[in-house]
Amino acid sequence: MTLIDTVQASYPIGSEAIDFNLPGIDNQDHNLASFKDKEVLIIVFTCNHCPFAQGYFPRLIKIQEDYKDKGVQLVGINPNDSENYPDDSFESMKPFAEEYEINFPYLRDESQETAKAYHAACTPDIFVFDKERKLRYRGKIDETTGAINEPGYTPEEGNEHYLRDALDAILEGTEIETPEIPVIGCSIKWKTE
């Protein structure tokens, strides 16, 4: 387990979302304009092989289900080096998404440029943007570790609902009590030059 302090001075709360153009498992390319009609955009850097990412997928699926009618769109982006981690290849993403019944776009960042632009540190790493696409929250989904291979793991959310609280505050037009919370996950598997 890795606790990563994702608070980045180079990408602070209030920063504008950085555009991307990435292929999805739906055979479509996606960018920020693809979600322009959404009130809130959640970008999650995630992957297939990390037990933390695997553990959080059921919670992310439930959040998308619970908030879709409120104009919230979740987008998963897999930036991991697929040469050294073949389970994270684009070809492996579709069967993985089918197995988990992922209900949101799942995109591949093969060049890792999008992850670098966002200063993403681990999987999962959550970025929440309001309608103006200003960063309002970065951090954990809830207080649990979420690793699927840990004793006592449950796909249910914990008692502290950081992501849900942030979404509710944005939708209600109020301030988020804690807009940045260090995340727990696997480090992003960067390509070596």
What does this structure look like?
By secondary structure, the chain is α+β, with helices and mostly antiparallel strands. It has a single domain (3-187), classed as Glutaredoxin (3-Layer(aba) Sandwich), CATH 3.40.30.10. 23% of the residues lie in helices and 20% in strands. The protein is built from 4 helices and 11 strands. It has helices spanning 51-67, 90-100, 113-117, 162-172, and strands at 3-4, 22-23, 29-30, 40-45, 72-78, 106-108, 122-123, 125-129, 135-139, 183-184, 186-187. The strands form 4 sheets. The chain has a 5-stranded mixed beta sheet with strand order 6-5-4-8-9. Strand 2 (22-23) and strand 3 form a beta hairpin. The chain starts with a strand and ends in a 6-residue tail after the last strand. Pfam families: AhpC-TSA (PF00578). InterPro entries: AhpC/TSA, PRX-like1, Thioredoxin-like_sf, Thioredoxin_domain. This is Thioredoxin family protein. Residues 11-172 form the Thioredoxin domain.
Defining traits:
AhpC/TSA, globular, 4 helices, PRX-like1, two-stranded antiparallel sheet, alpha+beta, antioxidant activity, Thioredoxin-like_sf, five-stranded mixed β-sheet, Glutaredoxin, 193 residues, oxidoreductase activity
Mean pLDDT: 91
Domain tally: 1
Structural class, by secondary structure, is alpha+beta
The oligomeric status of these chains comes to single chain
The biggest sheet amounts to: 5 strands, mixed
Helix proportion range: 10-25%
Residue runs with pLDDT of under 50 for 5 or more positions? none
Order of helices and strands: EEEEHEHEHEEEHEE
Q: Strand order within the widest sheet?
A: 6-5-4-8-9
Q: Give the CATH class.
A: Alpha Beta
Under CATH, the homologous superfamily reads: Glutaredoxin
Per CATH, the architecture is 3-Layer(aba) Sandwich
Q: What's the N-to-C terminus distance?
A: 26 Å
From the spread of the alpha carbons, the general shape counts as globular
Number of helices: 4
CATH topology: Glutaredoxin
Number of separate strands: 11
**Approximate strand percentage:** 15-25%
Radius of gyration: 15 Å
Organism: Candidatus Undinarchaeum marinum
Pfam families: AhpC-TSA
GO molecular function, one term: oxidoreductase activity
Domain Thioredoxin: 11-172
